[in-house]
Amino acid sequence: MTAQDQIKTTIDANDVVLFMKGTKSMPQCGFSSRVAGVLNFMGVDFADVNVLEDEGVRQGIKDFSDWPTIPQLYVKGEFVGGCDIITEMTLSGELDQLFETKGITFSKDAADKIREANG
Amino acid sequence: MAMADEMETRLRGAFTPTRLEIVNESAHHAGHAGDDGSGESHWRVVLAAPELEGMSRLQRHRAVHAALGPEVMGRIHALALDLS
């Protein structure tokens, strides 16, 4: 299976996927850590793919969405963004709306707490 | 050309900024993965430009990636963007 097939299969099989450096329990980059932290805190059930474990996936995910950086968040097969975009969408409430629209379970209270702490 | 100057030249070539800040944050990441010792690895760009109006977040980021070009994007490790 090529890296592109592998990526497509992972995104199709999981409603929420984060391609990141490290894992959700042990991130190895501040930007990956921030996005994984938001999802963890909001109680979102997501699959994490550690790109540091597979050079093919590390380069492949950049080509997949024509996006040069990691982390990358996918919801229901759709690329949402990287660290800056997810942070902005969390604080604006757009991420809540996206999860609601896509039927992804999350804690609205936790999302509100993030916004209160960063308001 | 120093990286900051090159980034500024490329961004001013693609946009007519009403606000442009290019901040080298490499020192904050010294010794961290991605620090290549160049002192030019981690960057933050704050850009406001009429060309970005009406674009989605993804489109704005893509427009900046394209303006900087693969050569700059390939040389830096991290790029935080604050676009409006």
How would you summarize what this structure contains?
Chain A is α+β, with helices and mostly antiparallel strands and 119 residues long. Chain A is built from 6 helices and 4 strands, in the order αβαβαββααα.
Report what the structure shows.
- The complex is a heterodimer of chains A (119) and B (84).
- Chain A has one domain: Glutaredoxin (3-Layer(aba) Sandwich).
- Chain A contains six helices and four strands.
- In chain A, strand 3 and strand 4 form a beta hairpin.
- Chain A is an alpha+beta fold and 119 residues long.
- A four-stranded mixed beta sheet of chain A has the order 2-1-3-4.
- Chain B is α+β, with helices and mostly antiparallel strands and 84 residues long.
- Helix content of chain B is 37%, strand content 23%.
- At the A-B interface, helix 4 of A face helix 2 and strand 3 of B.
- Chain B: This is BolA family transcriptional regulator.
- Chain B: InterPro entries: BolA, BolA-like_sf.
- Chain B: Belongs to the BolA/IbaG family.
- Chain B: It comes from Pseudoroseicyclus tamaricis.
For the structure shown, list the relevant keywords.
heterodimer; A: 119 residues; alpha+beta; Glutaredoxin; 14% strand; B: 84 residues; GMP Synthetase, Chain A, domain 3; three-stranded mixed sheet; 3 strands; BolA family transcriptional regulator (chain B); BolA-like_sf (chain B)
